[in-house]
Structures are given as C-alpha cells and as structure tokens.
Design brief:
alpha/beta; TIM Barrel; 2 domains; globular
Length: about 270
C-alpha cells in the first residue's frame, strides 16, 4: 500500500520521526562536495550523510580510518553550502569520540560550528555511551550506527554480515534500545540479517536506516558513488546501481581526448 508523502520544505530530526510514525520510508544518500550535494538535494533526498566513506571514495584509502576531523569539516562545509531541503548528518571520524567524552563533545561542536551541519553520527553502542550522552547534553542531535561498523574493521577483520549469531544479535538489540533511550534520533543498521532489522525497527520509536539490512528498515542509505556506478569494483549484494557512470564518463573523456588530438575541438563555433 502506498503512503501519502508529506511535503517538507526543510527536513529536521523531528521530520524523520514523523515519517516513521506515518509509515513513510526515509531516503538517505552520501555526498561530499558542493556539486554532488546540489544534485542530491534537488532530487528531494531526505537526509544527506557526509560519511567518513569519503576516505574511500574521495581519497582512495582502503578503510575509513585515515580521514581526519578537519577533512570531515571541509567536506561537510562544502555540502552545507549546496542544500536547501535535506537534513545533513556528518560522521565523527575514527579517534575523535571513542575514548574521551570531552573530546567527543569538542569534535561534535567543531563540526556543528565550523561546517553548519545539522547532526552527527557515531558508531557503537554501550561502549560509547558516555560520549553520546555528553554530545546530546550540549543540544547536538546524534544518529547511531550499529551492525557492521567500518571504523572497527580491524576488530572484526572482515566486512561480512554482522549479528548472525544470537549473542551479537542480542547485544545489537540492547544497544539500539540504549541509543534510543539516550536520545539519538535515528540509527543506521549496516549489513545485518533482514529479520533482525525488522525486529529492531519495530522495537524503536526512532527510525532505522538500513544499508544491507533488508527492506524492513524505516529508510535506506547508499554511497552516491556506488548508486551512480562511479565505482565498479565494489559489488555487494545490497547495492543497486542506477547508472554506470564509470563507463559513460570514460567514453566521454576518451571522446574529448580524441577530439583534441584530431583538432576537432574546439571548432569555429567554440572559439571567440
């Protein structure tokens, strides 16, 4: 059954909770620069995530770990200047919040003040409880992230599906309830079994956003470069490519090179 969508001139954290309550799915995509964010926002995406995945797709690192707080602020600032409607959430990068709640607050404040972002996202549950409490106490909205948490890749040792075993699944459910109780406005659930996503989503009043978590989440998120097919070596089951820009851009650039070499570009109409 289709759900009538409410028109939001500006999406807020309250809007997302209302969407869940009204049965409207939430759309979320990453963006890391002004030009891409302008396109994503104009397409009425509800949430733009300035993800630490910029470490991978923008900088070419193997993991999300190397990206710095200054770099996240740079990307977030670029995105903020482009948007009119979407809620902009920014990842707190690895090492900026896990060990010290005071440092977590300082990191979150820098992102909010220097980029103009609307909220921050953190990975983990009970182990980062004090950091989440400290950030929320300052009035900064926080989104959680459970399941496969890429900042902990060396702990897991693999990007395979998480929480398939009962012990880990129970911890995830407990962490989700804890994050809601602390005051988080939403939780990303990454690469976990679909039935667990359904159970967690139904247990919470705040929305869940799935990536590789199946259709029962309250919304979905993808990395924009993956959705558009700008990346071509990353092929997880959960990824649906809506374009093949890697191939199309390659053709266009090859045509440009050919036209320059043959002196076809610029032609008489393309000069002053």
């Amino acid at each position: 059954m289709s759900i009538a969508k409410k028109e939001y001139k500006r999406v807020t954290v309250k809007s997302l909770v209302d969407m869940k309550r009204n049965g409207e799915k939430i759309s979320m995509l990453t963006a890391y620069d002004y030009s891409m964010a302008k396109i994503v926002d104009a397409a009425n995406v509800d949430v733009i995530l300035v993800g630490d995945s910029a470490s991978n797709v923008m900088a070419g690192h193997e993991t999300t770990l190397p990206i710095t707080l200054d770099q996240m602020i740079y990307h977030a600032s670029s995105v903020i200047r482009a948007i009119d409607r979407a809620l902009v959430v920014v990842d707190l990068p690895f090492g900026s919040y896990q060990s010290d709640p005071k440092e977590a607050l300082r990191s979150a404040i820098r992102i909010m003040k220097e980029s103009g972002a609307h909220a921050v996202k953190v990975e983990g549950g009970a182990e980062i409880k004090e950091s989440v409490k400290r950030i929320l106490a300052a009035g900064i909205p926080v989104m959680g992230h459970l399941g496969l948490t890429p900042q902990s890749i060396y702990k897991f040792g693999t990007y395979t599906v998480r929480a398939k075993e009962e012990v880990e699944a129970e911890k995830l459910k407990e962490d989700a309830l804890l994050l809601e109780k602390l005051g988080c406005f939403g939780i990303v659930l990454e690469k976990i079994p679909a039935n667990l996503t359904k159970e967690v989503s139904e247990s919470l009043t705040i929305p869940t956003i799935g990536i590789g978590g199946g259709k029962h989440a309250d919304g979905q998120v993808l990395v924009i470069h993956d959705l558009l097919g700008m990346t071509h070596e990353f092929n997880p089951r959960f990824l649906r490519r809506y374009m093949n820009l890697y191939e199309e851009m390659g053709k266009a650039i090859s045509s440009y090179v050919s036209d320059v070499k043959s002196m076809d570009f610029p032609n008489n109409e393309e000069q002053y």
